[in-house]
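Worked Example 4.2. Consider the chain below.
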Amino acid sequence: MTATDPALTALAQGWCALSLLHGRIEAHIERALQSGHGLSVREYSLLDVLSRQHDDDGGHLQMKQVADAVVLSQSATTRLVTRLEDRGLLSRHLCPTDRRGIYTNVTEAGLQLLESARPTNDKALREELDAAAANPELAPLVHVVESLNAPAGAPA
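Applying the procedure from the previous section yields the following structure tokens:
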């Protein structure tokens, strides 16, 4: 394959379109979450990931699992967790069986903030997907995103 190979060019164009769609969505959601709830997209994502692990028996994730889930380096994840912990939205504790392991839990305050922010996140996502669907370059990607978790037999 050469640098001007049509397959590579199409692949690069597809990647650029995907990157553009992601950037537009993230920026739109960021503005909505910041103005409505004082949360960044990363903070919201972290609370969301942890809430899915949360249960009354102390559902939690190790810091490395958290970093992988929110696609950040471990040092950036530690800073993010510290910020949210300082706000009372997360807590950390040592693993009882491995003193090297640190677990992160979402607090009740974090769950409440997440639940109040979820409609804002969902509305901003829907708005930006609708706007992107009007762009012929992005419309196929919007269709794919919308069809990812659609129930079987449901129109995308």
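The first helix runs from residue 6 to 37. The chain has a mean pLDDT of 87. Compare this with Example 4.1 before moving on.
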